[in-house]
Structure formats: C-alpha cells, structure tokens
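Task 17 of the worksheet. Students: predict the tertiary structure of the chain below and write it out as structure tokens. Keep your answer in the requested format; marks are given for formatting as well as content.
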Amino acid sequence: MNLTRPAIILTLWLVTTLALLCLPTAGRQPEPARLRAEFLKMCDAACAELNTPTRKVPFYHDSYAVRALGVAYDLTTERKYLDVCRAWSDRMLEYQAGMTPKGAYWMHYGRKPGETKGDWFVADCASIAIGVLATAARCDEPNDRRKYMDSVTAYAKLVMDNYVRPTGGITDGLWSQFDGEWWCSTGIFGSLAFLLHAETGNKDHLKVGLNALDWLNRMDFRKAEHIGFDEAAPAVVMYVFEAFSAGMPYLDLKSPLGTASAAHIGEALKWMAENQGSRVAASPWDYNSQWGSKLGGLPFHLYVYSRYLPDGSALAAVADRELEYVGRRVFGAGEPKLTQLVCFAMFSYAEKLSPGAIYRKAKR
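Model answer:
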C-alpha cells in the first residue's frame, strides 16, 4: 500500500500507541453489555434532568446529551428517549422565535429572546442546531421533521449570510471582545455544514464545511487564540476536530486538503497520547473541570478516525482504553448526574455502541 507522508506519520504513531496499550494500567477492557448498561444509565439521568426548570447550564452542554439520547432511541426504540429530545428541541424553537437576529438560538445565557443587545455566539448555537438536527433525523412524521429542519436551516442561513468569511473562517457572531474568524465557531459550524449537506444535498453547505477545514488547517489548533490553546486545550481539540470528524466522508486523503487534514489530525492524536488519563501517569487536565470535561468526548473522534485512517483497529483500541477510563471517572462516585463530563461521555459511548449513528440521516 502506498502511503502519503501524513499516513506514514499516523502509522508510526499508532505503532507507538499499541506499545502503550500493553502497559499495566488499571481497568477492564470494554464489554458491550456493560457499556450499553452504563450508557443507558447516563441516558436515564439525562431524561430526568434535561428539561427541568432548575437546570441552569448552557444549552450547548445538553446538545451533546440530546444527540446521544437519539442514539439510545435508535438502540432501544424506547420512546422516552425521543420524547426528551423533542421536548428539548421544542424549547429551542420556542426561544428561537423571539430571538434577534432572526434565526438565532438562545444559549441559556447572554442575549435573551426579546433583547436586541448583548453577546450572542455562533459556536454555542451551532451545537444547539446540531442537537435539533439530530432530533429531526429521528422523526417519522414529515411535518414534525420539517419543523425542526426549518429551524436548523434558518440558523444556518443567518450564519452563512453574516458570519462566514471569504477565508473559510467563521466569526463567533456578536462577541464584544473579538470579531475575527475563530477556531471554535469555525469548527462547530463547519461540522453543522457537513451534516446539513448530508441531510439536504445542498452543496453550499458542503463548500462551507470544506473551506472551514482549510482554514482550520492553516490556523493549526495548537495556535488557537481568544481562549487560547494553553488555557483550554481539551476544548480546542474537541471542537476544532468536530469539523474534521463530520467532514471525513467528503475528504480525499490524497488531495491537498486531505493530506493537510490527515497531518493536522495526526498532531491531535499525538496531543491525546500525551494528555489522556488512560495513557499517562497523571493527566494534566481535571476531567470534571470546564475545559477538561471535553476529554470525555475525545473517544468519539478516535472512533470516527478509526474508520478512515490507516491501522484503524489500533486507533479503535486506543479509543476503547480511553472510554474505559472515562467510564471509571463517571461511575466511580456512584450513579451518574448530568454533569458536563457525563454529557460528553454519553456522546463517546454512543459512537462506540452504534458506529455512525451520531451522524445518521433521516429515514425516508
């Protein structure tokens, strides 16, 4: 097999990773029945907490739980999981109807429905939009699906008309502290653009997604600023590489964009090897902190890349080991509550249990 230079780098990295997997660290290898039981415990916690009036967290946290609940519905056909997704999405649509600018979502902080001043962010709202899109994909009735799709496409139009720059970078909306292209808004909205293309076939969305990858490659995640890499590295890796994970089906790895993207992903894999708790004696990041909680979502990316990059089985084994570690962090204190770590852990468990379901399209 003829490998490109980035592919060779990834192969060498994975060989090293296999050696690391042989180190004597605590924990069991994942078992499907146990993982499923743990996943559904987290999903049940989400069902109990997501739509309660006492829950005050930003809605982008919960969007990852909503997407995982959609997979729980796929796996079990239990209506309660879809009902919670729909109730959450209906709230997002109700708030959206009162927002300025038109098409925006309320983030559960910042600018509220009915207000015309205050910060409003593309990145957080793109996460919300993807949660609504995941709900749409699971609605059997065309009218139900259409109302959620109309919401997401209205949001996408707002961003594409106002905040996508010719460089491929995307600004973070109405942010009083910075008005340039930003890594987080580019990564998450880039992901949404790919998912909308998959659902609708609209090539304008595909163009936005591919241009976002090009901008992110040129930026380099390790040079992220305005919430910089040194401060928030797990979040930078989680959100920047959402665009790459969603965009993998559209990347020719032998093309210039594909080659650059594979190299960029390879650097992210190297960072994970040096920072994930399953592979270092002590991770420098607290998995229960604002930034460190995003480590719970990184096995998701590893599972996705295992289907596209060389030596995918080795990469999946790395993901399994880290998911095992995340599970111990979630369940070590007993029954789970819907913390930010749990929201991101659910996301990774979903991808392990049902590969590709996080990105599934509507069945017609």
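Marker's comment: The two ends are 39 Å apart (CA to CA). Residues 28-359 form a domain with the Glycosyltransferase fold (CATH 1.50.10.10).
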